[in-house]
Automatic annotation (TrEMBL):
Entry keywords, A to Z: Hydrolase, Membrane, Metalloprotease, Protease, Transmembrane, Transmembrane helix
InterPro entries found in the cross-reference section: Rce1/LyrA-like_dom
UniProt name for this protein: CPBP family intramembrane metalloprotease
Organism in which the protein naturally occurs: Nocardioides antri
Entry GO MF terms: endopeptidase activity; metallopeptidase activity
Transmembrane parts of this sequence: 32-54, 75-99, 119-135, 156-175, 181-201, 213-230, 236-257
Any GO BP: proteolysis
Any Pfam family: Rce1-like
Positions of the CAAX prenyl protease 2/Lysostaphin resistance protein A-like domain: 120-213
Amino acid sequence: MVVALLLVVPGLLVQGYDLIGEPYGQDSIDPLTPVGLVVVCLSLAAAVPVVILATRLAQALDGGWVASVVGRIRWRWLLVCVVLSVVALGAALAVAMVLPESGGAAVDGGVNEMTDRTVAFALIVLLLIPLQAAGEEYAFRGYLTQAVGGVVPGRVGTAVAVGVPALLFALAHGVQDPPVFIDRFAFGLVAGALVIVTGGLEAGIAMHVLNNWAFFGLSLLFGDITEALAPVAGTWWLLPGTLVQSLTYLGLVAWIARRRRLETSAPVGVLEAKRPRV
């Protein structure tokens, strides 16, 4: 059901843009246009309502239980995670500054010209990237993690519930250089571990949003946003910064979560669905 809905929603969005006179096609992606970026972001953001609906229909559970063990997004905790993700990103940037090359967005040393198109892209990135990132987290770390974890019990199930969505997340980005694939796989592993450590999607969403804001922002200022949409090339020097950021963030989040005595499991019986487990 989730897959079917995710295939239908992008088509509906494309038809909607055609109706308002902003046709969407291959030339909206390469080179990327503001309309193209809007369609991409909203298509991925659609995973949030799709997952909530699928959870309600297929498992007879309130969709809020996909977000966290308290049945909703914990907004204060999400804001704490945003601050922690800034600290972790700062550590990664510090490491990247001393490496020969870090891969990622192409930066030629000059600042791009600020145009109306640039401003449009910036507003879209600011407003829609959080929705896009949340959609991916709901799909991969929300629905898939619970679906896989519900099939395989015990500690093995926990490991599989983290590893399988991480692998699918990396594969979903298409053909890519090995360092880029490993970078995305590592991100998926950390985001999955954060779900286990914190009992929710908030930490993963915060890290995902900040990473994408930083990447698209740097591409708008110094590089090519078309290449930033789906980067496939990178060097092994990409990985040290990723490891520093991921491990720093995971450590900080785990530490603060313990200090705040954050709930990491739902009350007994709450997630016993009338239909197959989530």
